Every structure is written in structure tokens, then in C-alpha cells.
Amino acid sequence: MVWLASRDPRTPIAAKAIAVLTIGYALSPIDLIPDFIPVLGLLDDILLIPAGVWLVLRLLPKGLLAELREKAVQTPWPVTPSWAVALIGATWLLLAGGICWFVLRG
User: What is the pTM of this model?
Assistant: First the structure.
């Protein structure tokens, strides 16, 4: 439903921005705290993703929220958002470029 809200033109800008960030963070292999750190590594995923979803739901108008819920139930899944794939790829390229620049300049 958050993905559908991010694509709907009636979604307020703040809700759309938080939806995009939440989906990008959920799909990204790069975490705020790496997962191999015991407890803390998974804690950021357990807190940030539901908080983003909750905030998107709170920012959506009630009528739009009900319509998107119904649409989400009827939508065949999985849907692969191409912009999310592009965002994750761009993040990895920027990270790799930054590491290469740091290593080669020094």
C-alpha cells in the first residue's frame, strides 16, 4: 500500500517523500547500522521501516487511505518498482565511486 501511495498523484508531498524513503530503505542492502552487529543491526530495520509506514498512513487523507487499501488487496504481487532498483543501484555506484576516489587520491 505504501508503494501505491508513493505513485498516486493525490498523495501529499510529505507522505510521498516518506513513502519513497521507506521503500528505498527497506529494499536497500545498505543499512544505517550494519546487520552483522548483534541486536543493533536488526533494531534499525525493526524500528525505521514500521515507523515510516506508520507515518505515511497517518499523513494520507482517510478517503485515499481506504481506496489504496482496497487497491492493494486487488493488486497482484510482487510488483517490482523500477525506480527502487535504480535508486539502490545509484546508491551502490556512489558508494563504490566514493571508496575508489578515497583510495586513489591518497
Answer: 0.66
